[in-house]
């Protein structure tokens, strides 16, 4: 990373918020603190009110619930006071579409613990004109929370307990993601992606903006104007992680390109656009699918695309994260049977060998974070202090206990139909 870009990045790290713009809400019994708006079980979200509980949910201490606030597009610092006067609590917080922000925060009876994270809110509109071409009904209905003019928080856990929430605008670096179904914010269990888990491994002061979408390629990123949306919002020093490959393979069958021709050319188009707007592009090779030979080794299915990604990073002189290699190490460490726990099972006995569940996504997110640190990507300055990961020695399945979200689907994510 050149010295000038690193200096610009660090200069952008200061958070700027105006007290008058801070939105403050209180959820506990009794009179709210001064300056806080009381939220009761009857405070259901309406567009007129501009905040409230999502219909059918309420903070009862036993079930997940959702709270939404109308906000302009941008980054926000969210501060929560967690705890319950009547009982011990364990709270997990996700944002928008299941982006993991806080994981299993324990509080003793009567204790209050304050936690802060940074989150990105976006809309389809592109400031330079037009908008992202959203997929209907997937993005307009199932994934609408990712694109509406509000921040939605999922309060989850074995005994979720929130006393107050404060939300303030933040001028901070942004870590953008572009990719396919293994990157994007999946709307429902059992599917998840490493992009959804990524925020959990970063301190406050940097926002993760996930612009990935199921079924897409580098070519789709351009055609559907996702790249345009990202570069329109880039500030000098922002980072863009890009991982495509699973769906790009279909272009070979259609006679419309291949890994060492059009794929590399489309990578270059992304790199050039991001650089032109002051951002740092980072190329990530696609993780492998689950498939083993008789000796317990992963059968490569994306080898050419991983190599093309590597070549592009070298030729264009941008950081490279070899998630393909790390995923093979991870899967082989888990073994043919153990690796099943990392992949989604939408119905009993129906394992999806491409898409991951919470555990698999959590481990792959750690692999990406490790790759960022090893590649000396400036955003790695925000990695949480206790981070450690070795894909050859993954976390035990029982050690990863991300509270499942209420919504569940048997519908497979778009794309990659040839590799079920």
CATH hierarchy: architecture of the largest domain: 3-Layer(aba) Sandwich
In CATH, what is the homologous superfamily of the largest domain? SGNH hydrolase
Major beta-sheet overview: 5 strands, mixed
The SS-based structural class is alpha/beta
Distance from N terminus to C terminus (CA atoms, Å) equals 39 Å
InterPro entries: Galactose-bd-like_sf (IPR008979), RhgT-like (IPR037459), SGNH_hydro (IPR013830), SGNH_hydro_sf (IPR036514)
Keywords: Hydrolase, Signal
Organism: Massilia pinisoli
Family: Belongs to the 'GDSL' lipolytic enzyme family.
Write a structural description:
The protein has helices at residues 3-11, 138-142, 194-197, 218-223, 226-233, 250-253, 259-276, 303-316, 323-338, 358-374; strands spanning 23-26, 37-38, 51-53, 65-70, 74-82, 89-95, 99-107, 113-121, 150-159, 162-169, 174-179, 207-210, 239-243, 280-284, 320-321. The strands form three sheets. It has a five-stranded mixed beta sheet with strand order 2-1-10-5-8, with no helix packed on it. It has a five-stranded antiparallel beta sheet with strand order 3-4-9-6-7. A five-stranded parallel beta sheet has the order 12-11-13-14-15, sandwiched between helices. The protein is of the alpha/beta class. It has two domains: 1-14 and 173-408, Rossmann fold (3-Layer(aba) Sandwich), CATH 3.40.50; 17-170, Sandwich (Jelly Rolls), CATH 2.60.120. Mean pLDDT is 93; it is low at 1-18. It is 24% helix and 21% strand. Helix 7 packs across helix 8 (303-316) and helix 9 (323-338) packs antiparallel against helix 10. This is Rhamnogalacturonan acetylesterase. Residues 1-19 form the signal peptide. InterPro entries: Galactose-bd-like_sf, RhgT-like, SGNH_hydro, SGNH_hydro_sf.
